[in-house]
Amino acid sequence: MKILIINGPNLNLLGKREPEIYGNRSFEQFLAELRSEFPELEIEYFQSNHEGALIDCIHEWGFSVQGIVLNAGAYTHTSIAIADAISAVTAPVIEVHISNVHQREPFRHHSYLSARCVGSIVGLGLDGYRLAVRHFEMRG
Ligand code: CA2
User: Fold this and answer.
1) 4 vs 56: CA distance, rounded Å
2) In whole angstroms, what is the distance from residue 49 CA to residue 36 CA?
């Protein structure tokens, strides 16, 4: 079973800046842990700061993986194009946000992606990715 995790803009800075909001672990460290927690899963990872690259990645993998865990970063609040890419592929997508976007600025309260996703997990830190992967594992 193959799961794809996609991180959007600025999430390459995890563990390096703003630890009070985003924690102090790099995503690479967390990913290594996740892969050892789920040895039976193939967990692919892609990060980009570019909207089109995120869309290309969704198209490339979205017909062959069993699930996509997507944190589109700030594109969540702006991108109809990423929303359309989610609708275009067959893989179910779970939206994850590390911070609780509803406790933050009003412009972070709306997501163009939520309605296209099977579910959303917000505010649980990196655990959100773990829970999303676990969901796909349980669903088989
Ligand atoms: O809470 C989330 O996961 C967000 O998707 C993070 C985005 C933000 O624009 C969304 O509203 C909510 C920002 C990612 C910035 O990531 C950083 C990580 C470390 C240091 C600085 C930025």
Assistant:
1) 13
2) 27
Instruction: Write down the domain spans for the chain.
Output: 2-139
Rounded to an integer, what is the distance from CA 90 to the centroid of its chain? 16
pLDDT tens figures, 30-56:
999 999 999 999 999 999 999 999 999
Q: What is the pLDDT of residue 75?
A: 99
User: Which amino acid, 105?
Assistant: E
The rounded mean pLDDT for the chain is 96
- Give the model's pLDDT for residue 83: 99
Q: Torsions phi, psi of 56, nearest 5?
A: -60, -40
CATH topology of domain 2-139: Rossmann fold (3.40.50)
Any residues with Cβ below 6 Å from ligand 1, and which? 10-11, 13-14, 17-18, 22, 71, 73-74, 76, 97-99, 101, 108
Closest Cα to atom 15 of ligand 1: 10
Q: What is the DSSP letter of 121?
A: E
Ligand 1 mean position, distance from CA 116 (Å): 20
Burial of 140 (0-12, 13-18, 19+ CB in 10 A): exposed
Q: Which residues are catalytic?
A: 22, 97
